[in-house]
Design a protein that fits this description.
By secondary structure, the chain is an alpha+beta fold. It has three domains: about 110-190, Alpha-Beta Plaits; about 195-290, no CATH class; about 300-480, Gcn5-related N-acetyltransferase (GNAT) (Aminopeptidase). The protein is about 35% helix and about 25% strand. Helix 6 packs parallel to helix 8 (about 275-290).
Amino acid sequence: MTRDMSDVTRAKNGRPVHHWRRDLVELAALFTAVAVADAVANLIGHGPDGPALLTASAAVLIATAGFHTWWSRRHGHAPPRTDTGAPAPAGATGTTGPETGAGGDADGATTLWRMRTTVKDEPGSLAALCTALAGRRVDILSLQTHPLPEGTVDEFLLRSPGSLTASELTREVARGGGAGTWIERADAHDLVDAPTRILALAARTALDAAELPLALRQLLGRCTIRSLPATAAGAAAPTGASGRADGALEDTVMRLRAPEGGVITVERPYLPFTPTEFARARALVELDTLLGPRVPRSHDVLTLPEGDAITVRRAGTDDVEAARAMHERCSQRTLGLRYHGPVKDADRYLNHLLSPRFGRTLAAQTASGRVVGLGHLLWDGDETEVALLVEDEWQRRGVGGELLARLVAMAVEAGCESVYAVTQASNTGMVAAMRGLDLPLDYQIEEGTLVVTARLDTARPPAAPHPAHDGQTAERATRD
């Protein structure tokens, strides 16, 4: 039986208030039910058709129970409803029936996709595409549009049922009017909206000039970025399809004028650049130009196993003279292990190696300020190279190991998948230093040149090398 809400909620001295009239009515109903049951039992038990009536009653009860069970199962899968009888809002969960994620399969499995397609620049074209996606329970998480003369390029972040494949999704997009569709898997990092991501990349670039190539790669996706000095670039500012003197956009290649007068080229063969992407990349480069040369001036004082204290810091083009002086103190063998080509030409690499445009450099210096070791993390297109040079007097004392561990940590922070070192097969010190990172290594040997690649797809940070291992890597002579 149900009670009026006021009877339940009203209380006196903390206890509910009961009424004697309701108790009397309930007692009368109980006696009436007993009398009716007794009359029915006498009628069936003493009548000639008593057993038949009992059998018929049992059959009716069984049929009623079966109908109730069928009805409950049928309506148990319906969407949960609110108190008003309307369907529950998205995200509500019912007490019966399987739960499904938004746009997912019965088990809730979903897949994130990044997709780009071209639609006609006319009213209703985007609506038709969205309708086609909705027909396959695909949820549109974000949308960016890139207007072009021949149409509009729409870039989506999608969440689809886990059973929907890329080819099936592409076919649905084609039915909805999309053309030239490109699609690839996405991850949780793509859930950040475009303005927030661009502002974060601009902040990173503002703090460190070496972040520009990484910022461009994160902005534009998988691409190859190269920096050419003014002499190699012809000393002329790039011009082309963009119509501006400070950059050129040519389908899958964009060229941007570097702050120091050279050219930054960005290539993405699998997907043409849009004018919007070109404008964003150019804005990052212009910000880098306005801020000028800058290197974070953090210092890390270390005590080596032998008790000597050294300072590890970021280095830049201001350290060219100190690096050249270290070259003069190094032996011919040390320089030969470090550089390919004639040792006398080693100094001409320094402007390139110390420039933040091509990577990051760490310097190890003594308490007197003398540079005794250099470690380079170099952006080599879509790959990353590590290189070391330690002065003879300071080798086998842990300097190279400290530099290498920090360079690899920088590579992990930058999102690099691997780093490689190029040296000679006889340089056992560098091999030992790479092995000391405790990372998966791949070795390739060709005509005495050894390339050691460390894969960075590991959850834990790389361990510092053993203090007894120092080494020098070889640098390609053709890099300049």
